[in-house]
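Deviations from the work plan: none for this task. Representative record:
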Amino acid sequence: MSIFRSMVTYILLVIGAVIVMFPIGYAFIISFLSGAQLLQGVLWPDEWSLQNYVTAFEKVPLLRYLWNSFIVSFIVMIGQLLVSSLAAYAFVFLRFWGRDVLFFMTIATMLIPWEATVIPNFLTIQKFGWTNSYLGLTVPFFALAFGIFLLRQHFKTIPFELYEAAQVSGVRHFRFFWYVVLPLSKTSLATLGVYSFLTTWNMYLWPLLVTNDEKVRTVQIGLKQMQTQEMATEWGVVMAAVVIVIMPTLLLLFIGQKQLQKGLMQGAIK
Amino acid sequence: MFRSVKQNFEGMLYIFPSFLLFAIFVFYPMVRTGYLSVHMTDFQGNPTNFVGLEHFRYLLEDVNFQQSVKATLLFVLYTVPPTIIIALSLALLANEKVKGIQLFRTLFSSTLGMSVAASSVIWMFMYNPAIGVINRIITALGGEERQWLLNPDTALIAVAVATVWMNIGFAFLILLGGLQNIDSSLYENAKIAGVSYMYQLRRITIPLLSPTLFFVTTVSLIHAFQTFGQIDILTKGGPMNATTVIVYSIYREAFINYNFGFASAQAVVLFFIVLLVTIVQFAVVERKVHYQ
């Protein structure tokens, strides 16, 4: 590659990075400024005081919200991995009546936007008495067509001879599933896990509907509250909360980026 | 025979958790939404009397609903093409083999890790008329301060700009993956033949990337029709309903006005719009897409 071309590439890369990262960097800087400094139009903090972070934890039960978000995301992740891998296993390794029809129905669920079904789902959760509970925040998301599809694609690459050998030697299905199929699919499971955790952590509409209680409220709804309540004048504190909220997912993304990309691509191309 | 019954039973057992959940949280609510859409409901969501297509007839006349359809379509137009063009440009850049490229790839995909709520709060402050950075930059350049989110002429565009930013990470990551899947020997041949970068882009990259572009476009379109969080935080559907996109309209009708039947009718419309987009995409684009 010519020097000229790589120079141009670098310049464009840096411009791109500055534009993409600007809002995140901006939030970070604001989180170190006091209300008075913001009004004066100070653009760079002269001291990196953590006061806003302390205030954020004091004024709202941020720790509680973070914990709730973590628990909810973790439960959904485990639930999706378990439920999806069981179904994917059946679609790949088991012969049973109506298998193709059921697989078609699984794919068809991807055509139904969650928002189009949100009203009856809300009423169902209310009827179950699951509002303001981890159950209501997690169980509706356990079955995921995308997850079943992704894992099915991977399970199909496992040599069928392995399955036959297990059958001949009388290994039970569940043992084969648990001790052979799952360990061979670690990468796909990790991809789906990262995906589940990220999307659940970032969920907005559903937790807004089914929680109105601090005990189970997730951190995203906590942010909305901070921004609408009297805190609105203390933008530094709000931004400190924003930084705390985005940290776990950004880290997860940076660590799991390659995995996630590969997995999402599988869904895209196949 | 016994074996096959056992096999059937076992298959069902593994499928059962998924289909029980699909039945409760996908299939039933879809049917129920249709059912509620032809009924009047009480404030707890129980159907009271059958009204047929009355809700849909009313939707056709309702100025608010027309406004929300218009806002939704404009929003899709303002967000989907810019997201794809910007993400594609970034992906092409990040696919160059230069030192330290991994860092840039990570940075470009970072908005994928940002929640709608966090992103919206940041943009809310950026749009702040008094102390936000956008007005600061504009006044520094000699422009006029604006109330971006309070002015009906700019609110939808302002939300769209924020949304484009939020969606770049996802589109970028998928497109980059698509670029990396293209057989590099094709480029080596092109290099030997001495073709220009633009020619190469038009004749090799874009055609071979078309399945991925197709996927990203479909997902972005469907995603755009489902927009809610940024509207709820940034504008609450205002000013003068300029940003009341369809999902926000459903939310307001159902969970603020407790008009579940009428909201369900709108949800049915949303379902058909998304279905239509998917079908059109598959039917029209599929023929033009180049599969390897």
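The longest helix of chain B spans residues 2-37.
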